[in-house]
Amino acid sequence: MKMSDFLPEFITRHVLFALIIGGVSGIAFMIFLIEFDHYTSTEEFCTSCHSMELAAEPYRNSTHYKPDSGVRASCGDCHVSEGVFAATWDHFMGSKDLYKQIFGPDYDDPVINALHLPEAAFAARKWFKDRDSATCKRCHVKEAIYGERLDTLQIHLEDAKDKTCIECHYNLVHRTIPDEKTFKRDKWNEMIEQEFGLEKGTANKLLKN
Amino acid sequence: MAWSKQAFFFLLIMSLMVLLSQSVLAAKVTLEPSSWGLEEGKACVDCHTKSSSGLTHQWKNSAHAKANVNCLDCHQAYEDDDDSMEHEGSIIATIVSPKDCGRCHETEYKEQKGSVHVKAISVLKNKMPNLSEHFGARAGYDAGCAKCHGSEVKVRGDGTLDPATWPNTGIGRINPDGSKGSCSSCHGRHQFSKAQAREPSACTHCHTGIESPDKAIYETSKHGMLYASHRDEMNLKSDQWVVGKDYSAAPTCVTCHMGAVGKMKSNHDVGMRDAWNLNSPVSEKQYLVIFEDGDKRELSTTEELPRRGETIKKLDGTEAKVKVVASPKRRRQAMMKSCLECHSKGFTKNSMQQFDDFVELYNDKFGKPAKAIMQALYDNNLLTPLAFDEPIEHTYWGLWHNEGTRARHGAAMGSANMAWWEGMHEVATNFYGHFLPQVKSIAGKKGDELIKEHLMESEYHEWLNKTQEATNVLGFDKGKPHEDE
């Protein structure tokens, strides 16, 4: 018996080889993507840039890092979408962070980092909102937020019925930053200057550079 | 002719009454009801009934709720307000300042704006940095001084309120919007009950203890005694609360210091009716200077009386034009109006006479000589300029600030015990038992000279010379026996 007896005529030996090679490499590529997304979503990978280490400091004191239950959310759990295609896309888009890390301002400098942090926060909040807080919902189910008081569940089911997590729950993990609408650049700069013992006006100069 | 004389006085009184006649009711909010009840604010309550049911319950029982004033009406903020924040889609502020309350309660805002209460922080800053910094430190100031005097609320760059300065409802609080004071100092949020603010406790949660012992004084006065017995007859919830008309069982702090009396309206400038300064080493009668910008300051009668239109310094250091000056006599008259609702003129005048005599006795016998001797000790470099690093400075401080204040306040409000045993008696014990011996030990011969110069000329202290005159007060039966025995 020959294989050609079972296969349509156009599947020649070459085509078959191509299909097998294509299929295997396709699978390998998918596995690669999954692994790649996994690896690039870890705290270890993200904080390999010093600038991200600065963002991670407050995270390590947050309940998302050390909850009573021991369930730890990694960087990617919140900041990278579910599913290999979406995750890959997020990483692809996220590569602009890498571009900025290399060619942009010196985000590794704690002062520069803190000065630029609000815009990063606003962008992140928008990202969550646009996705209906999808990554929050990986773990959190609105119908199951019992909290410590009965009212907590009621509030989530009734008052927050049409709201998405991020609309109320921001400033949970990273450094506290006001909402974009009430953010005051001059006050923020002043605070950072005081924090690092810098002369008044330094922040403005640094931002212009 | 007797008749024409009577008619003359009748007309005089009538015309004075017409001049003074204004509404006796607490100032009504004159805005259109459409000015509040923001649509956006109606939803707050749904969630807050669950998340903070206590405060929502208080609000539900308030006159605000009945008038459809909702959370956002008071808590609304503009995006560029220093302390504004986004909350559930609205721009709000946690702190509701007097300026915010003044959006509707215009009269009260105007009155409190120039009052002695809003200057409670300047009093701290200008007079006694020693206490806050040397006796305490930041945390002591925050939990102690600032809780009554007020904090300078700081909004941090990240929009949060500095926990050292908030929560705080001190009466002179400096708010992020620049306004001064805190209405909730006396008007507990979120019910804002009239009855609660008319209770003595609205004042005595701060006016108690060493610096302002008025709680204990009021409670041990005849007025306090009557109040305790007849609290249920005080008509505290009444819309209008004019003494002699709506209640008469007893006066509370509010009655005499800011309440409506006859045609005299109530006023949120609480210190207006005080003629004396009773919280100083030596008491002086005080003018009340009212500036054209609405601000006010007190000025001792020992200082030059400013004229109308003259530009003088305000307490905050800036200058302003004088609009009018109220004399201590005028201020006393305002105070006496409330007395006269229950007491006769003679009774009232004599009571005030007893009070004035007591203050002058304190001044002349202890306050002035102690101050003069301390001045001489500093002038002769017998004391370091730093306060409280030498025992006598503590003695002197206790003399006028602790016991001296208690004595004078006690006399002002008719508490015999506070005026005498816990007041003047303590002053005397301190003065003869600690202060003078310390003067002698610090200054030696110079001390004896100072005591002679400032004390021995005065008949008040003559008894010190009669060292051989024995009495039985200490129980040693020396000298002439007591008459009873």
Question: What does this entry look like structurally?
Answer:
Chain A has a single domain (41-208), classed as Multiheme cytochrome fold (Orthogonal Bundle). Helix content of chain A is 57%, strand content 0%. Chain A is built from ten helices and no strands. The model of chain A has no long low-confidence stretch (mean pLDDT 93). Chain B is an alpha+beta fold. Chain B has helices at residues 2-20, 44-51, 53-60, 63-66, 71-75, 98-101, 106-113, 120-127, 129-135, 138-149, 194-198, 201-204, 214-219, 222-230, 253-257, 328-339, 345-379, 391-412, 416-443, 445-456, and strands spanning 85-87, 90-92, 242-243, 260-261, 276-277, 284-291, 296-300, 311-313, 319-326. In chain B, helix 2 (44-51) packs across helix 3 and helix 17 (345-379) packs antiparallel against helix 20 (445-456). Classes of the chains: A mainly alpha (209), B alpha+beta (485). The A-B interface holds A 151, 154-155, 158-159, 167-168, 175-179, 181-184, 187-192 and B 43, 46-47, 50-51, 53, 79-80, 82, 84-86, 88-89, 91, 155-160.
What is the CATH C level class of chain A, in words?
Mainly Alpha
Whole-number count of domains of chain B: 4
Class based on secondary structure composition and strand pairing of chain A: mainly alpha
Compute the separation of the termini of chain B in Å. 62 Å
> What low-confidence regions of chain B span 5 or more consecutive residues with pLDDT below 50?
18-25
- Main sheet makeup of chain A: none
SSE inventory with pairings:
The complex is a heterodimer of chains A (209) and B (485).
Chain A: H1 13-40, H2 43-46, H3 50-59, H4 75-79, H5 84-103, H6 110-130, H7 150-159, H8 165-168, H9 185-195, H10 202-208
Helix pairs in contact in A: 1-5
Chain B: H1 2-20, H2 44-51, H3 53-60, H4 63-66, H5 71-75, E1 85-87, E2 90-92, H6 98-101, H7 106-113, H8 120-127, H9 129-135, H10 138-149, H11 194-198, H12 201-204, H13 214-219, H14 222-230, E3 242-243, H15 253-257, E4 260-261, E5 276-277, E6 284-291, E7 296-300, E8 311-313, E9 319-326, H16 328-339, H17 345-379, H18 391-412, H19 416-443, H20 445-456
Parallel strand pairs in B: 3-4
Antiparallel strand pairs in B: 1-2, 5-6, 6-7, 6-9, 8-9
Helix pairs in contact in B: 2-3, 17-18, 17-19, 17-20, 18-19, 19-20
